[in-house]
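Notes, Module 5: Reading structure tokens.

Key idea: the token line is not a picture. It is a compressed description, and you learn to read it the same way you learned to read a sequence, by spotting repeated patterns. We will look at two proteins. The first is printed below with its tokens.
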Amino acid sequence: MLALLCGCSWFHRTKPVPDPTELIVTGAPVGSLLFVDGAQSGHATQASNRTQVLVVAPGAHTLEVKLTDIVVYRENTYTAPRSRVVITVLSGNRRN
């Protein structure tokens, strides 16, 4: 009886994996690169309407959108644990 109870999956339930903290970036110019806190995140943007989802640690972050070496957009943001923050890149504008 004890062997049956030990093998039962009811006693070995796994903890659910928490949702990740994400920055969801839309509207980045074609060919631009995304940087979070100075480190490149993601690949070059193929289309300006393509959404990129970046998994980040909770806390304050600076998102920069660069074309070649020029910063075309910068935004400071805060992400709470397990939250999703949507950032819409406004062409030619900077928000600090």
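Here is the second protein, with the sequence above and the tokens below, as before.
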Amino acid sequence: MRYQINLPPLPEQKRIAEILSSLDDKIELNTKMNKNLEEIAQAIFKQWFVDFEFPDENGNPYKSSGGKMIQSELGEIPEGWSVKVADDLFEINIGKTPPRNEKEWFSLDPKDTKWLSIKDLGNSGAFILSTSEYLTSDAIKKFNIKIVPKGSVVLSFKLTVGRVGIVNEEMVTNEAIAHFNMKHENEITKEYIYLYLMNFNYTSLGSTSSIAIAVNSKIIKSMPILLPSKVALSGFSKNVKLLYDKILNNQLENQSLTKTRDALLPKLMSGEIRVNL
């Protein structure tokens, strides 16, 4: 069977390809840049809060320069630092899933509220900008689903444990995701807790060989959180916030470029939009 396909002239096809490729190249560049920025942030976190080589009052690496260490449930930590239970530092809430057989609660309409799943969390970067499904306002009211405030850090703790992200707008989640909402902004920052949860050893929380079965919301709320001194946290946050501001800007730009590319393609190929040669 033969089909007739209308195609633009070859020079115009090549120009269309150039336009679309330039968008793809910019998206790829931003993605690589974000990977590098994340690696830098991870390295700084490890240096400061794992190796404890943050700058002391003289600008020297703390631990290797003889900084005093004290014992804690997490092992040795710098003097003046402490270990808190997660529930003391954060308002921790868990999401919900309405009955799946009741289709009226679920939506694909962007006007409804974004509903975050573990799969969405895995597909996002550091910041969560989009979800594959939405919940209606009626669903949120009927099932009393907690709204996750903008800037909250979220953590998957069932089935796939340890996926972490920062929500960039209000949304809701399913029951496999915990929301860490800062109680005291001056004590801890979203960048610090994001990196802390990214580096946390979740196998230490489980009481069985299966981490997927062992971790529940009660265990998440009782997680030990290293609380640095205000000076150390402030210095760290000043450095790392700039990195995550750039990461967010790159993610937002990629989202915009992707929408532009996906909208342009059918219009260019159909001739609805013509390109200058």
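Summary for the second protein:
- The CA atoms of residues 73 and 90 lie 19 Å apart.
- The domain at 82-225 is CATH 3.90.220.20 (Adenine-n6-DNA-methyltransferase TaqI; Chain A, domain 2).
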